[in-house]
Specification:
The chain has 422 residues and is of the alpha+beta class. It has two domains: 155 residues, Chloramphenicol Acetyltransferase; 245 residues, Chloramphenicol Acetyltransferase, CATH 3.30.559.30. It contains 13 helices and 15 strands. A seven-stranded mixed beta sheet has the order 10-9-11-13-14-8-15. Strands 5-6-7-2-12 form a five-stranded mixed beta sheet, covered by helices on one side. A three-stranded antiparallel beta sheet has the order 1-4-3, with no helix packed on it. Helix 2 crosses helix 4, helix 6 crosses helix 7 and helix 7 crosses helix 13. The radius of gyration is 21 Å and the shape is globular.
């Protein structure tokens, strides 16, 4: 297969610049099947998809002015899940391939360096990998519908486009906003990350959110904000000026009616200033709901995209050598990136599959990594009436998860807890 190369999309530019020796932005999507995974057949399925997904099977390369992605000659070797999720990808690893394909018992997992794609693109690839595997292993006849494509067809041009360049407004929206409180605690040794997953009936979440007149994402953000506020009140080093803000990645495919397999999300921060007084849960729900609705209208998002794209298009900046760009991007990220949110809640929504494929599938999971400067994050995905809320942390203190899931139980929502704790 002829080598191809791709410029990093606008959202992807930051990730190689801010990665560290023991940290980079990696996320995982996984599917648990009804039957045990055959690694040899999974490897064949991965190879079969190589020509169909050239923007996924890529390595990270370093140019004089920018990083870029280059297609690989063969799919990465399928590996048994050998340690724990989201082990940082080294630069040597990224120079070979920017994804991992893993298996363990009934589970197929794919981990992505975030410059390749976002959660929506990653889930689409995972679904196609599982579909191809089930075709080879079970003889399943799975039609190309929804996210499932015909692997024999050539890639679609729209899958490789940088949609940010198409939807930027003429005017820009300022990045200025208040800094947010970050939880803290004793760091875990090495790259191990604690993951606690709460399994919840989706109907119960919908009922609570609808009772408040808000979306599930806004409702979860409100409950999480309460938990973060409780941690801040118990933290003697928090400072009185800290805001409580939840970062919510927004899928711009829905906002602008565009489609791509590359990154096309933009994060917004929603929350409140505790100095203004006490808030009831209903008041926090309304704040989260209205802020999220206001920030995600197309015009507002287009202005935020323009703020980022204008820097990418700036000719003097484009001519600056990569090492200097990297320093500048790290500075911008420090000042206007992670400092503005307390933690992420990334909600994938409900996964949909063709009817011929669904009977083979037990569940889906979605896990994002911790940020460099704060140790907690949360990701959500729903499948066949169950919602899987995964909280990840790089510290030993589990108080935030306890507060969050205890709140759900106190509200009458049944929660089954799983953990990878050693």
């Amino acid at each position: 297969m002829k080598k191809q190369w791709y410029r990093l999309d606008n959202a992807a530019l930051i990730f190689p610049a801010v990665m560290r020796k023991n940290w980079n932005n990696v996320f995982r999507v996984s599917v648990t099947l009804k039957n045990r995974v055959d690694p040899e057949i999974l490897g064949r399925a991965a190879e079969d998809l190589l020509p169909r997904f050239p923007t996924i099977y890529v390595r990270l390369k370093t140019g004089f002015f920018w990083y870029y992605l280059e297609t690989v000659d063969e799919a990465p070797k399928v590996e048994e899940d050998y340690a724990w999720p989201l082990t940082p990808m080294t630069r040597r690893k990224l120079n070979k391939c920017c994804i991992r394909i893993l298996y363990y018992q009934n589970r197929i997992a794919v981990e992505f360096f975030h410059s390749v794609t976002d959660g929506t693109g990653g889930m689409a690839f995972l679904q196609n990998l599982a579909a191809r595997y089930l075709t080879l292993k079970e003889g399943a006849v799975i039609p190309p519908e929804g996210n499932i494509v015909d692997p024999a067809e050539p890639p679609k041009e729209e899958e490789a486009r940088d949609c940010f360049l198409q939807c930027a407004a003429k005017g820009k929206v300022s990045r200025a906003e208040a800094n947010a409180y970050h939880t803290r605690g004793n760091p875990e040794e090495g790259p191990f990350r604690h993951i606690v997953t709460g399994i919840i009936p989706t109907e119960a979440l919908l009922a609570k959110a609808h009772a408040e007149g808000v979306t599930v994402t806004a409702w979860l953000a409100a409950v999480m904000a309460e938990a973060v506020l409780a941690r801040m009140k118990a933290d003697p080093l928090a400072g009185k000026r800290s805001h409580i803000k939840i970062t919510v990645p927004v899928n711009l495919r829905k906002t602008f009616g565009l489609n791509t397999l590359r990154n096309f999300t933009l994060a917004v921060n929603i929350g409140f200033d505790p100095r203004l007084g006490e808030y009831t849960r209903s008041e926090i729900c309304r704040l989260m709901h209205h802020q999220l609705a206001a920030e995600t209208i197309p015009q507002r998002m287009a202005g935020r995209v323009a703020t980022n794209v204008d820097l990418q298009r700036c000719l003097p900046l484009r001519l600056v050598p990569l090492p200097l760009k990297t320093l500048a991007m790290r500075l911008v990220y420090t000042l206007s990136g992670e400092s503005k949110g307390s933690l992420n809640i990334s909600n994938m929504g409900v996964v949909k599959l063709p009817e011929a494929m669904a009977p083979y599938v037990e569940r889906f999971d979605f896990i994002i990594g911790v940020q460099y400067s704060y140790p907690n994050n949360c990701s959500v995905v729903s499948w066949q009436g169950k919602t899987y809320i995964s909280m990840i942390r790089g510290i030993r203190d589990s108080e935030l998860e306890r507060l969050f899931f205890s709140s759900l139980v106190e509200m009458g929502i049944p929660v089954d807890i799983e953990s990878n704790r050693r």
